[in-house]
Amino acid sequence: MNGSRRQVLGLGACLAAAAALAPGLRLIELAQARSPEEAASKLQRWGLLIDTAKCGECDDCVTACHEENGVKGHGRPATDSQWIRKVNLKDKRTGFAQTLPVMCQHCEEAPCIDVCPTGASMRRADGIVLVDKHICIGCRYCVMACPFGARQFVHEKTTGQKADVPRGQGTVEACTLCVHRVDRGEQPACVSACQRDGGKAMTFGDLKDPDSAIARRLKSERSTALRADLALDPGVRYQGLS
User: Fold this and answer.
1) Looking at the structure, do residues 95 and 162 belong to the same domain, yes or no?
2) Which of 55, 82, 88, 164 is deepest in the core (most CB within 10 A)?
């Protein structure tokens, strides 16, 4: 075989390989050009402060979240998605009981991102942790890695989806802090509902802005992180936990 023919065959093999990889390369290209990240700035970090002393028995935050994001139950509690859920805590020694909402904690050192094999789990520059539906393969490593039980696998077909909130059967999802609302300068749906109809237990804002209400409160009032022992630096903090 002469050199020119060997070069032609080699080029053909390369083109064939490129064609086989094209879908994957396209997904990587999409992942690197995620439009939601264009609105994010590392000069900000969005966070949430929840005062458990003001959090009552209502489910206004849960209802508002699921309505805003088109999350619907199918009568199967074991597999239905819950982007936010109310958790009841009770101290066995004193009998003191508390109720609080739990959702994705939007960690600085997020375990879900560390274990994701495709890069679908990602953290925006402003601290919001998201799942890229283009490249999530539904392996559920992130579901197992999350110490807060905040990630859900979509078992059922999704219907009535909202344009701002892409969902899909066979992928993983979790609280996004209503990123579509945040990018419009609005509060997450759960916070708006809590402030309007609930116990005004939620405060949302920029943790890096010293003049924001949340930054001032975190500086002057005691708060704690769930599983603080893991040193994940979550963007969600709680007050009043016993």
Assistant:
1) yes
2) 55
